[in-house]
Amino acid sequence: MGCNFSSQGKLQVPEIRASRSITPASQKSDDNSYSHIRLLLLGSAESGKTTVLEQVRLLYKQHFKESEYFHRRAFIYHNIFKCIKALCRAMKISDIEFSDPINAGRAQSIIADEENHYGLFSKEMAEKIKAIWNDKSMQKLYALRSQFNLNDSASYFLNNLDKINTVEYKPSDRDLIMAYVPTCGVQNVVFTANNQSFQLFDIGGQKIDRRKWATQYEGIDAIFFCLAISEYDQVMSEDMVSNRLDDALGLLQKISEEPMFATTPIYLFLNEVDVFCEKLDVIPLSKYKPDFKGGDQDDAIDFMENLAVTALGKRDKSLYRIYRCIAIDTQMMAELLSTVFKDIMKRKR
Ligand SMILES: Nc1nc2c(ncn2[C@@H]2O[C@H](COP(=O)(O)OP(=O)(O)OP(=O)(O)O)[C@@H](O)[C@H]2O)c(=O)[nH]1
Ligand SMILES: [Mg+2]
């Protein structure tokens, strides 16, 4: 897998603060905001936007508040329950049978459970989840996970259930990166890289949140667009019909053609390369994109990059850069972000 960024070493970051805001970038008046370089994260739901923002926070030593750990922790329980439920549902409609027949009953009770589960699991519930997850057949099903929508972090959290399901559990940095907490509204982070302050805005990518996007367009210096290339076979949870990749490419095209961004550079992150590469063997790309005539992983990534270039349309080549990445990989993101921040600063000079 070729990742298109160079090793530039880590950035020096003296001080970083975060705030949540719904104020457009153009109207920020606090902290001498007009000296910030303003960046806007865009992309469809679950494409990795918040993961990028959280990597920035971790890499630039911006500590999370206790209330944020508390908030993320609640979502981690929720993520675990959603994952096990998705697996139980997938098992039910598959040809695979639980190795231990008792687990079929347990799975049925998970499917029927309508609670949202944002808190610690009871001992019985934790045992039930573990028994289902550790069933030999469940592991067979998990190997076929590309065939159904499952959060990419399912195995990470399910394997760590004992550690997580304790009163004293506090998410680690890795847990924060692996969790999926859908973004509602807008959040932003202010940080310094190479003696230049940046403000990075992150906005929800679900269809309902996209209506608010345009309120953030003014005063933006560069766009970070996340495109999860692994989604080529998936449908959107919003309507269960539209293909996620086509929707994301449509969004990219819309952003590329947005008159307010006519001269704004777009940094396109072809994300989830890890999931994409795992998936290719199970679900042929050509089944969803008949124009792909086969080849190895690099050929498949090149094909996806060409789709992105097509979506970027007539935009001048100097106005976009494309990077292949795995947003959960902190080291990879450190190098990539360092390269990108330097490039943005060069353009501003
Ligand atoms: N394996 C893998 N998982 C990823 C990658 N990037 C993000 N994820 C996971 O995908 C999930 C969704 O990521 P987010 O960054 O929260 O998605 P988002 O774009 O902010 O989504 P919205 O807020 O709903 O618009 C999280 O569980 C991440 O840990 C990646 O490159 N590889
Ligand atoms: Mg988000």
TrEMBL record:
It comes from the Eukaryota. Mg(2+) binds at residues 50, 183. SUPFAM superfamilies: P-loop containing nucleoside triphosphate hydrolases, Transducin (alpha subunit), insertion domain. SMART domains: G_alpha (SM00275). GO terms for molecular function: G protein-coupled receptor binding; G-protein beta/gamma-subunit complex binding; GTP binding; GTPase activity; metal ion binding. InterPro entries: Gprotein_alpha_su, GproteinA_insert, P-loop_NTPase. Gene3D superfamilies: GI Alpha 1, domain 2-like, P-loop containing nucleotide triphosphate hydrolases. One of its GO terms (cellular component) is cytoplasm. Guanine nucleotide-binding proteins (G proteins) are involved as modulators or transducers in various transmembrane signaling systems. PANTHER family: GTP-BINDING PROTEIN ALPHA SUBUNIT, GUANINE NUCLEOTIDE-BINDING PROTEIN ALPHA-13 SUBUNIT. This is Guanine nucleotide-binding protein alpha-13 subunit. The gene is Cbn-gpa-13.
